[in-house]
Amino acid sequence: MITVNRIGKHCGAEISGIDLSQPIDDDTFAQISKAFFDNEVVVFRDQDITPGQQVAFTSRFGTLEPHVRKESRLSGHPEILVVSNIVGDDGTPIGAQDAGRFWHSDQSYKREPSLLSALYAVEVPVQNGKVLGDTEFASTTAAHDALPEDMKRRLQPLRNVHSYVHYRAKNRRAQLAERERGASEVTEYELSESQIQTVPDSEAPIVRTHPVTGRKGLFINEGHTSRITGLPRDEAERLMTFLCGHITSPEFRYVHRWRRGDLLMWDNVAVQHKATFDYRLPLRRLMYRTTVRGTAPF
Ligand code: SIN
């Protein structure tokens, strides 16, 4: 029997009473799945799991989607994306160094964007007893519900374009600016033409219905949205700025303070997230991420 304790106002719960390294029967899995979709972000504390066990548990929610950044996949486990600031002896990053710089939901640029992600904390950076590198979440469903009715009506027919190429260009500009200020040493792999071809832009409704819960949420984010279709540029920019600011306002946020051994799962339809880069080597952060494929937004 699992126990579920709410830890955030609009999203976030801790699930206890489960050891994810052990087989989970169908009844217990159904309880976990319900708690997950009800709470949008859940954490299982003090887990000691292998990459294979993370893959086995998270693939019960659906098909795992290997990330386009194939250099950052875990050797022997292509479904796992390594998220880390660690570099090898030859200076090569062992994983994605700055995943989550902007508010986003994972793989929102895909025709079938990710349903959910799970991030397992292998190493967390600690300074003077304080864990750094929080991950912040914002509930897009609570943000949608809080909009005035006339804004909900205005958004109903609108669609926006999610673009990985747009994100990479934006990320690259931010990286260069940081390097010039001496604030970061992050270097990213260039994507090859053939990798880019696997992630064409895709268009989706701004108001999206959750395929499991039926709740409506706002599917637009500062990391991946390149434009709103059919609106004059100025009006589209103003609306994007308003919506992205509204979704990520403190009211709708849950901030996750990590512990080593956390397996944190989030619903990519119901929340957006953003990483906090307040640590640098020699403080090390090592996370393993699995991502479950979703369905076309409607
Ligand atoms: C991500 O955006 O998937 C990574 C979040 C984090 O490292 O905190």
CATH structural architecture: 4-Layer Sandwich
How many distinct domains?
A: 1
CATH third-level topology: Double-stranded beta-helix
Question: Mean pLDDT across all residues, rounded?
Answer: 94
Rg, nearest Å: 19 Å
Could you describe the largest sheet, including whether it forms a barrel? 8 strands, mixed
Query: Which ligands, by name, code or SMILES, are bound?
Result: succinic acid
Q: What pattern of helices and strands is seen along the backbone?
A: EEHEHEEEEEEHHEHHEEEEHEEEE
Please mark out the parts with pLDDT under 50 across 5 or more consecutive residues, or reply none. none
Q: Structural class per helix/strand content? A: alpha+beta
Beta strands, count: 18
CATH superfamily: Clavaminate synthase-like
Shape: globular
**Strand content of the residues, in percent?**
25-35%
Can you give the helix content as a percent range? 10-25%
Task: Quote the distance from N terminus to C terminus.
Answer: 35 Å
The first-level CATH class name: Alpha Beta
- Give the number of helices: 7
Describe the structure.
The protein has helices at 26-39, 51-58, 140-145, 149-155, 164-181, 193-197, 233-247; strands spanning 3-6, 13-16, 41-44, 73-74, 77-84, 116-123, 126-127, 130-131, 135-139, 159-162, 202-205, 207-209, 216-218, 225-228, 253-256, 263-267, 271-275, 286-292. It is of the alpha+beta class and 298 residues long. The chain has a single domain (3-293), classed as Clavaminate synthase-like (Double-stranded beta-helix). Strands 1-2-3-16-6-18-5-4 form an eight-stranded mixed β-sheet, covered by helices on one side. Strands 15-9-17 form a three-stranded antiparallel β-sheet. Bound molecules: succinic acid.
